[in-house]
Amino acid sequence: MVGMARGRIPDSDIAAIRERTPIEEVVGEYVQLTPGGVDSLKGLSPFKDEKTPSFHVRPNKGYFHCFATGEGGDVFSFLMKMEHVTFPEAVEECAERIGYQINYTGGGPVNRVEPGTRQRLIAANRAAQEFYRAQFTDTGNTDPGAEKARDLLRDRGFDDDLVAEFGCGYAPAGWDTLTKHLLRKGFDFKELEAAGLSRMGNRGPIDRFHRRLLWPIRNSAGDVIGFGARKLFDDDKLGKYMNTPETLLYKKSKVLFGLDRAKKSIGADHQAVIVEGYTDVMALHAAGVHTAVAACGTAFGEEHLQMLRRFMLDDQFFRGEIIYTFDGDEAGQKAAMRAFEGDQKFTGRSYVAVAPDGMDPCDLRMDRGDAAVREMVADRIPMFEFVIRTIIGGYDTHHIDGRVDAMRRVVPVLAGIRDDALRDEYARQAAGWLSWPDPGEVVAQVRQEARRAGRRSSGPALKEGVARLARRAEEKEREAAAAQAQQSNLTRPDPDDG
């Protein structure tokens, strides 16, 4: 059996799902397959760039083999490799595809999902995206919002090809235009409500989005699972951005906009660039940075980080790089601190890329071109350095009081760095950025605070330690000033000379 939070998947169910899932159909969503002999299909490897097909599928035997990389296995292995999911998740995905009801054992009570529900919701979202896209591209559309949506993207420097690649659409002004369209296509209201496309109004079912520019949000496999919507008119009293609500498909803590396009480059480059908006993702891709993704309707969090780790094939050596792009304002600094306080096993390979003059990536591209966007990413600095310098930058370090106040803020942050070597090194660098006379004193104080970190309260001890450092710094400043004055007296010309 395979363990899951909702229970265990019996071996008999695993075997039945494996046998009933057509591997050629699953693989065919990723690889263009052609006949390759008796009970054999072939195509270009999805794991490696190649010109001659070396990837083979044996439908009757239910397995694949890639001669270019040596990878092989059953349909579960293929999904695990392509989507970086766990074995139980691969089993569940296949079960959903074929409408198989898994008989979980040993778990607590769970809400059963009817077989085929997931595929119906995906189909509804796909049909909605096609509808929204048609509303966007129809130049004969008399709804003024359609032209306004096109202009918004055009004014940001996105050409028609890029907009089409991202599938941007428009939600029309009518209250139930999409809902009626999808009902005519055979979906029922409960499905549309479950997909987050429709809701019940005072007089019946209505659309969730109206008069808004839309971006389809896809899972890593490329299925549309929700939408991000930007308002276009000032009389729209709802928020500037809206997202599909939480559904069976759309879990905002587990979704990254652009991941379906970026996943291959993320794996190849061992790098992911985290931006804050849909147009920022588009701007980076347009500029040739194909590893850009964004959280949807929530802050970038731990589950997003774990997803990216899997796609980067990250291991215990933490080769992958997470590059955050934060605005230079207070909100951006808070976002940096949230990221810093996350999983620090990875933070040692986390960086920050900041555009000049506090611009976001989309504005930077409009103002200075694609090369400036690429340069912004290339000029990234380590997360630790960004956070510490940001804290210090909030104080007037030209005076001892400012340096002491900055030290009070910096010491606990430095002490929170889990890697001993990194902690000591950044303590030394912080001493330099603070113009602290003796870096060794700062290192010692940070080490002491790190040892106390597990105790209930280290406030008084920390204040005492920083105060002691302050007194030493003041003494050294006075000594330095006295020495400078003495040297000045020795070299000052006598007023009577001459």
UniProtKB/TrEMBL annotation:
Residues 270-356 form the Toprim domain. Keywords: DNA replication, DNA-binding, DNA-directed RNA polymerase, Magnesium, Metal-binding, Nucleotidyltransferase, Primosome, Transcription, Transferase, Zinc, Zinc-finger. The keyword DNA-binding applies. Residues 471-480 have a biased composition (Basic and acidic residues). PANTHER family: DNA PRIMASE (PTHR30313:SF2). This is DNA primase. Its cofactor is Zn(2+).
